[in-house]
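Technical appendix A lists one of the benchmark inputs used to test multi-chain prediction within the project. The record comprises two sequence entries:
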Amino acid sequence: MSSDALKKRKPKVLRTEGGTPETKRGRGEGDHQDVRVYSEEVELDARDPEQDFLQYKESCESLATLMSEIQELKANGAKDGCAEVEQRRMQSCIHFMNLKKLNRLAHMRLKRGRDQTHEAKQRVDVLHLQLQNLLYEVMHLQKEISKCLEFKSKHEEIDLVPEEEFYQEAPQDISRPQLTKNDPHQLTLARLDWELEQRKRLAEKYMESQTTREKIQKSIEVKKEHLTSLQPGLNAIMQASIPVQEYLSMPFEQAQIQTEVARHLPPPLYVLFVQANAYGQACDKNLCVSISGDVEEAKALSKPPEDSQDDESDSDAEEEQEKTKRRRPTTGGQLDDKRREMLKRHPLSLCLDLKCKDGSILHLHFYYLMNLNIMTVKTKVSTSTDLNTVISAGDLLKSDTLLSCLYTSDQGQETPNPANRYQFDKVGIVCFADYVEDLGHPYMWVQSLGGLHFPKDPSEGVRVGSSLCASHMETTMKLLRGRLLSRLALHKQFASLEHSIIPVSSECQQLFPAKTISRLARWTQSTLQDYMELPYTRHVTDAGLATETDLYFMSVVERGTAHLQAAVVLSPRYPEVSPLFSLSLSWKGERSGRTDDNLRAMESEVNVFKNELQGPRPGRQLLTNQFSRLCVCLDVYLETEGQDDSVEGPREFPREKMCLRTVRGPNRLKPFKYNHPQGFFSHR
Amino acid sequence: MGPVELLHMSVFSQSFSPCGRFLAAGNNYGEIAVFSLSAALSPDATALSQKPVLTFTAHEGPVFSLLSTDCHLLSAGNGEISCWSWSELIKKNVKPLWTKRPNYKSSLEIPEINSMAINSRDNSLVFGGGDNNVHVLDLEHGVFKSVLQGHSDYVHCVSVRDREAEILSGGEDGAVRVWDSRTGQCVHCIEVHKYESCARPQYGKWISCLTTDSDWMLCGGGPSLSLWHLRSLSPTSVFPLTGCQRQTTFYQDMILAVGEGPAVSHCLLGGEVKAQIPCTPQSLNTLQLNTNSTEHRVLTVGGSSDHIDVFTNLSYRTFSFSF
């Protein structure tokens, strides 16, 4: 109980003794106090805590006894100021004092102990820190060591010369064999030295070569300058020589320019250009190839690689559709633009001029439709003579029919590229034929010449590009030339037919008797419509031999009162496909080849047995010879007709032709076949 | 054969095979085409079955006459007669068994053979043509037995009366001559154009068709088609058909006739024209009834076309063969 009270009081004492407010009040007092505290401390050192503890116990016991004595005395009724009690109170006070001192000492001892512990702890901390440092140092050093161990020298990467070689080649002062033979480190050093030496030497050599190179370059430069200074002079010479070239027809200059321009041609036209040039040089000196069109535009076109137009047009078309929904009135113009874009031609075109022996020229202009990926051709014919006088020949040399059906059924009206169908659907093009007049004809052979291949028949061998072009070039050129010549020949024939003259060349004279009385009276152009309306041509149209591509003519052969009408179908492939005659005779009533066997025989005489009539190859006189034979046949027909003896008077057509028999066979045919040297007529 | 040649083709002669399943037809280019009737008449016939199973060039000139015997096909070309075996033709072997040419005098033009007939009495072939004569070829020995001379112009048609051993021939000269096949003598000569009921001077006088049946004879051409009674040698009925007739035949109690004009004429024996059935060619040269086979009993006609019309029923055209 008493110890508790002590403890409670103890902090107060401590505060009064070591509290900070006292130290702040004044230093002078502090010194005095220090001295006092110090003395107590010294005392403390001298005292034994065990003894103090015993003293404390004694004091406490004596206090307790004193208290109990006072208690007894009080209880016995002693007064407060009684001496005995006072004595005892005095004694207990002394004991209290003693206890106080002991308490103070204990506190001081505790403090000291604490200080000592703290000190020791600090020391331990320092030591610990030292230990840590040392450990770290060790680790670092270990790392360094391992780093050093792992170090790789650069020289390991250098390819050194092998040892033997080194000893052979290196001079003694570098190799130092006595040193290096046993010491690999020295050996390596020596080898590196040698390497360095060698490299230095090579570097020197390199520098030397560099200088010589520069020297040479300089000299080249000088020479170049010299050469470029020659260029204007040469150009001037070239310029001056152009007239000479032209005079000698050696177009070197032109060819050069052309090849330059040709680089900007689209691939199909380029294929055609190269192949046509090659063919012209090799086989056909009269073939002239030239490029026309806007080169600058083509250059601009060829710069960005042609992106696929399809994607663009795809999205465009969708947009288009949306737009049509929103704004109806303007769509027409937009569609027009789309169409124009779709049908756009490459700015460059290729012009092939085919010269014929008689001076007429067939100009072929080849175009490439970029977005449709097809080629088209336009044609023009220039002739040495004026041809406009012949009325019925108007269609013969017209651009859109001239090359029709060059190959069988190749009319050049529809696009050969099946993909175009879908492109057309998008922009509302119904039929390519509507644009043919503007764009030219996309004949199949044109695509072949351009190396474009659109397979229709799976059995066809697939060839594209130059080989396809080359395989078609010769035949096509021959066909083109043949077509032009045959058209010109036809033109001439028409000219004389219009004047009712049937020209017969000397080679063909033997085909006909010397005297022919029937005459051609009329030769006019006709149309398919008119032709089909004729009553005597139905069998031809039914057989599919009269088509839109053919040309139609009406002619009349006359003798006396007899008029023989002949409707002629002229194929564009004349003379390969011969003209087809249908006959109708008005003489003593109407009869036609359909009803009269003899007229039918006359038809077959001109239509079927045409091979005899072709004359010199390639048979361009066929048409006029057919007319000559028709006249002869009409003579025979009229002269052998009417054996009816009952009619009085002279015959209208006296028998002049020599015939073995006038009729033959079950259908009583007349002898239409002329036998040349003997001059008589016989039956087939 | 190009389209132009097809356009100008004429069919001159036809003959059914002995079995009746095939039809041979000759045209003006000297070709003979063999068509399969059984294929064309079968229910699953296609356009292809109306094309010939075999086409071959038999002669240089037109094939004016075709005739089938028990197992052979005889074809007449320019002055020559060829014999083909039907069994070989069906197997598509085209090699003539023989080709014979009578001894003609003229050398400038080889006379054609217009008509042939079989005289089964002595197994001989009677034919006439461009040399104005009727020739008899013994088929047993292959020799030309006799020449019946008398016509002044070429012979259009011949016919044989088996029972009477008579040969009849009609010619361009307008005469129908009746010959005794045993002696080779001309028994009668009927000049049809001199009978007023038959004569048609606007056409001419030639006799281009001639058919006999027991005592009856049909003849026509320049003169009108007329039915004659041979015992009395007088015309009993004249048929009012326009154009000249080229071939006729008796069929049951009717007469079928073809000629100029695109129709087959059905006539009654009394002289009326019962019907004219239109067909494809504009003028007709030949008509044949297939009596060799009951299941393929058809009438075929050919003319100035590459089509041969086939009639399964006499009253309308069923389909056409085409070269």
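The interface with chain B takes residues 539-540, 543-545, 578, 580, 594-595, 597, 600, 603-604, 607-608, 643-644, 646, 660-661, 663-668, 680, 682-684 of chain A (CB under 8 Å). The radius of gyration of chain A is 65 Å. Comparable benchmark entries are summarised in Table A2.
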